[in-house]
Amino acid sequence: MGNLNFLLGRSDFKAASDIIESVSTFPQFNERNENLALASSLLVFKSQSQQCWLIFTSQRIYFVVDDNEVSETKTLWARDREKIVKNGRIDLDMKIISQSKESSKLLFGKMNKGFLFTNSLFKDQTITGLILKLVSNHFLSVEN
Q1: What is the pTM of this model?
Q2: What are the domain boundaries of the chain?
C-alpha cells in the first residue's frame, strides 16, 4: 500500500507513538504535567485517507486526525481532566448515534458535535467502555 499511496500523492499513516507525540504541539499541552511516555492511544476512526485517535494523558484527552491525503497530523481539540472528573468520579456523558453499517457518531461530553468512529474497530468492546476504562486509568489514579 505504501507505493500506491506514494503514487497517489499520499503518505503512510503515522504510528501510534508518533500520534501520541504530536499532541505536544497543542497549545494546552503541559510537558511538566503530561508525561507522553505514560499516555495511551485509541484509534477510533479509519478510512483510506484518514485515521482519528483519542490520546489520553494524566491531564487531558486529545482528538487527533492523521490525514494522509494532505500529509497532516493535527490535534483538533482537547478536554481537560477537570471537566471530566467531578468529586473524584467520572462525569462524562457519551451517546452513540448510528450513522451507517460502517460508522457511528459519538456525542462526547458537552461538545456540540462529537465525532465519527468506525464500528469494526469496536467489535470486542464498546467504544464508550474503552473510553471510560482509559479515563479511569489516566484521570482517577492521578493525585492532585
Answers
A1: 0.89
A2: 2-140
